[in-house]
Amino acid sequence: MDANILIQAVEKAIAGGAVAAPAQDFLGPDASFVRTQTDVGIEAANFDAYVADLKQDPGMAAFDGTFANVPHGGGVSVGLPNIARVLLARAIVTQDVAGTVKAFIEAIRANETEAIAVMGIAGVTTDVPIQLGPDVRLIPMADVPQSMQRGIALGQGPFNAMGPRFAIPYALVTRFKFGPVFYRPKSPQPPEDMAARVPTDAAQMLLAEAFDLLAVMGVHPHYHMFWVQSDNWFLSAGMSGGWQFSQSGEHWGRDASISRGDAEALAASYFALDPQKRNRVLRIPLDRLGRAGREGDFADRAIDLGIALESLLLGDNDPGELSFRLSIRGAWLIGNDEAERLEIQKSLKKLYELRSRAVHSGTIERSSKTGTTIARATEISKLLIRKAIELKCMIDWQRLIVGGPPGAPS
């Protein structure tokens, strides 16, 4: 791109009366803020002349046939007028035409942007941000940088009808590089042109792991919304309209608090594990433990806990009797003495009986006795997962059940 052509076009538009778009409070604080950063107030004839001036540069003219990757897949047509508005708006806001044009050209050339993946959740509360592993943080939604999507998550302005029926209070966030942002349609389309979804999917899966890990801490939040937002206004095309809503419904439970120290220590140990190993050993137990905590029906909870325990304790495909193996392994893995192991074994057998009844009959008795059995099995499941993380998912079951150390020999 020819920087001089772009500078002259922008300066001419500003001299012709272009100004930053005014705030519009009815849109809500976030949507109004985004508008002031990326849109302009300018007469139609002056804007048409500005776009025509930009078209003198072939690179700018090419935006009329350019698409931008949407984080969740697919693309949207960009169009030179849209890019022209952002470029002009940024020059006005920064009051630095030459610097803005230089930054714009560099951004387009790189075609990659630092981005934040955001998972909006409810059902958890914390007084301070929590570092869940090296790449994920739990923060108040208000601490997420302003964006159209954050405005929706917070229920602002007329956009609150598009989102949940209440403000989403917290967010799990991680940073990653999103790119390529722009591409030209081809037939067939080269895979590398659409590769932006790959790091997006990886970021979403990372947040999902942190979300599931919260269940081990006794917190069972509800996921409501996911989106990606760019750090660079020039490269935000395709992202402003990209978000997903959960199909799980509203959160009606009581918010649970977590200990920062415990959460950060557990997350550090978990994410230090080899990704393939933790996916193979812990993905299903964590997912099902989390589901069990969010379920209201005892049968559903028993089934989910049963699956979590089977996956964690019976993953070696030993053909022995399931209930006995599951209960004895769980007892020896976390029990410290004969009495404790006996209690754990009985508790796990009771849960497995409930799980079998729920699977075969579709219902189980809703009583205080059933609730106590499920509650105790939930606590045992948390302890078992913590132990598996502590042992780096390497457990020698044969040595364990004859009284040997639980870790696999090195």
Structural class: alpha+beta
Number of alpha- plus pi-helical segments: 15
Which H/E pattern describes the elements? HEHEHHEEHHEEEEHEEHEEEHHHHHHH
Helix content class: 40-55%
Q: Please indicate the count of domains.
A: 2
- Summarize model confidence as the mean pLDDT: 91
What is the number of E strands? Answer: 13
Radius of gyration of CA atoms, rounded to a whole number = 27 Å
Largest sheet: 6 strands, antiparallel
Overall 3D shape: elongated
* Strand percentage: 5-15%
Strand order, largest beta sheet:
7-8-9-5-11-12
Alpha-carbon distance between the termini?
59 Å
Compile the SSE list and pairings.
Layout: H1 3-15, E1 19-20, H2 29-38, E2 40-41, H3 44-54, H4 58-61, E3 67-69, E4 75-77, H5 80-94, H6 97-110, E5 113-122, E6 124-125, E7 130-131, E8 137-140, H7 148-153, E9 170-178, E10 182-183, H8 197-213, E11 222-230, E12 243-245, E13 256-257, H9 260-271, H10 275-294, H11 298-313, H12 322-334, H13 338-361, H14 368-390, H15 397-400
Model description:
This protein has 410 residues and is an alpha+beta fold. The protein is built from 15 helices and 13 strands. The chain has 2 domains: 3-245, no CATH class; 274-400. It has helices at 3-15, 29-38, 44-54, 58-61, 80-94, 97-110, 148-153, 197-213, 260-271, 275-294, 298-313, 322-334, 338-361, 368-390, 397-400, and strands at 19-20, 40-41, 67-69, 75-77, 113-122, 124-125, 130-131, 137-140, 170-178, 182-183, 222-230, 243-245, 256-257. The protein starts with a helix and ends in a 10-residue tail after the last helix.
